[in-house]
Amino acid sequence: MTETTRSIVEAGTAVPPWVMADVDPQRMKTMAAILRDPYPVHWDRASVATLGLGERVINQGPLNLSYLANMLMAWQGPTCIRRLQVSFGSPVLDHDHVTATGTVTAVEIVDGERRAICDVHLRRDGQPVVSGTAVVALRSDESEDR
């Protein structure tokens, strides 16, 4: 990458968004089986309805978290995540369109590794449903001459 095309990561840099255009209820059912999650709201619409939450099944927290991880790894590579801490707000429902977004708030060097501290959000209709912070190791081409 040349100096003129290199993207310098600094406070205020936007992390490229990652989109899940359609949260698939079949994936929720599969994940519930993998996680041995007995809570039927992840696959049974009637169970969700009895709670007064409509008739759309609810996505698992780990799947929502994975969308943020996918965004970070697409940006800086598969081994970049050093820490990811989030809080879960509103549920993500089947067939929702969600977008993972992030913004660098600071850059630090830890043990010779250049890292970005980021505010991260999973958004539905522009509103955050999962929010938190991430620490991401920047690729070596981001660390040159810094």
Give structural notes.
- This protein is α+β, with helices and mostly antiparallel strands.
- It has one domain: Roll (Thiol Ester Dehydrase, Chain A).
- It contains four helices and five strands, in the order βαααββββα.
- It has helices spanning 25-35, 45-50, 61-76, 140-143; strands at 14-20, 81-88, 98-110, 113-124, 127-137.
- The protein has a five-stranded antiparallel sheet.
- A hairpin with a 2-residue loop joins strand 3 (98-110) and strand 4.
- The radius of gyration is 18 Å and the shape is elongated.
- Residues 1-5 have low confidence and may be disordered.
Main features:
Thiol Ester Dehydrase, Chain A; single chain; alpha+beta; 146 residues; five-stranded antiparallel β-sheet
Q: Quick one: CATH class?
A: Alpha Beta
Overall tally of domains: 1
**Anisotropy-based shape:** elongated
Strand ordering within the main sheet: 1-3-4-5-2
Structural class: alpha+beta
Largest sheet: 5 strands, antiparallel
Q: Terminal Cα separation, in Å? A: 15 Å
Oligomer: single chain
- Strand proportion, as a percent range, falls in 25-35%
Provide the succession of SSEs.
EHHHEEEEH
